[in-house]
Amino acid sequence: MSGRWPPGPWSLRTRVTVVTTLVVGVLLIAGAAGFYVTLRNAVFQSLRERGRTAVGVLADTVRATDPQGDGALRPGDAEFPLLQVLDDQGRVRASSPAASGRPPISDLRPDAGHPTPSRTGTLGKEQVFVVASHADTPGGGRVLYAGVSMPGFVQSREYFTFLLVLAVPLGLGLIAVSVWLAVRRALRPVRRMSGELAEVTGSGQGRPRRVTVPETHDEIAQLASSVNLTLHRLEQNVTRQRQFVGDVSHELRSPLTGLRAQLEVALEHPEDEDWPSVARHALNDADRLQRIVTDLLLLAKLDAGVPLDREPVDLGDLARQEGARPRRVPVDVDAEPGVVVLGARGPLLRLITNLLDNAVRHARTSVGITVERQGPDAVLTVADDGDGIPPADRERVFQRFQRLAEGRKRDTGGSGLGLPISRDIAHAHEGTLVAAGARAGARLVLRIPLAP
């Protein structure tokens, strides 16, 4: 099973809003809690320091005079009005006016490890903060308390809690609405593109359809530009496919029409026909049909990217093998030994055959083929002494079913697929095939990387 979460029914806008709201909610709660804890610690630290000062002043007074009685103590710090002095038995021996008549305000007992401990507690219905200390007097040991009522702190804590409970949901609601509207606005061009793409069809009728590119310079504008580029490429591919289908239909119709016409004429007067001659003509048309279908099948495989079974192939051996075949004009082969490439022997042989057939078709007296190393490449050149290829047509000859006027005069049975197939085979071997300039005739140059 994949570790990814399964897709849910929520839209992207909903998911972004929910995730953002949850993250902000967690951060708000954590920030509020951290602020409260920091504020509480700061308040108690201040109280602790002021309380220790107050109980220290009280300790000096007790050691000097050992006061007794209610109201006998006077607070040195107005913020700590609750002062008490207890004896060893825990009885209140002296107190300040604010603590008169009250029982001990705490049960804290200082010790050697904590000479001035502090604690919060309750005194009646009040919450108080108490700091304790110890003092020795001639009458015995005394426990000293300095305390302060904390109604303000309690009220502020309740107010803070109420504010937190009220403000966090309200803030999260505002954030959720803001994110929802912001994502909706950000995705508006995407919705527009989606609607425009839904209207795009492959009919080719009307003007080419494109999506609207937003005026913003962000990722969505880049996406729209990429979509338009993809639509442009798809349109070009569809146009080429339609042209290809039309050219195929035309090329196949010609031999089929000729074959049908011959057979119909022969069948009208069967007793007057030379049937072996009719069969030879029909066989020629069938051979032409077979060549076209074979070429189309090879083109389909190359276009589909069918992997080739590669092996080390000596390009010079292939050139010598194909150049030795008898042709209309002699073929001069000049091949360096050991020019080895990593390729498919059959397609490479087909490539050389196509180049030589094309050269022989246009040559006057001879054709030359050379194989050599040039840096990291193996270079095969086929040259003829014919009329050559005009510079304006050096790329057009590699288009499918494109034949120059001079080629049609010399060979009416060609299909115009030989050079396109040869270039596709070169590309399948990470190579190139171009029509180069020459002083006389045509010169086709093949480059393929040498085998490692």
Can you offer a commentary on this structure?
The strands form three sheets. This protein has a six-stranded mixed β-sheet. It has a five-stranded mixed β-sheet with strand order 8-10-11-13-12. It has three domains: 146 residues, Beta-Lactamase; 83 residues, Signal transduction histidine kinase, dimerisation/phosphotransfer (DHp) domain (Helix Hairpins, Orthogonal Bundle), CATH 1.10.287; 142 residues, Histidine kinase-like ATPase, C-terminal domain (Heat Shock Protein 90, 2-Layer Sandwich), CATH 3.30.565.10. Helices cover 50% and strands 18% of the residues. With 452 residues, it is α+β, with helices and mostly antiparallel strands. The chain contains eight helices and 13 strands. The mean pLDDT is 81.
Which short descriptors sum up this protein?
Heat Shock Protein 90; 452 residues; transferase; rod-shaped; Beta-Lactamase; 8 helices; alpha+beta; 13 strands; single chain; Helix Hairpins; 3 domains; 5-stranded mixed beta sheet
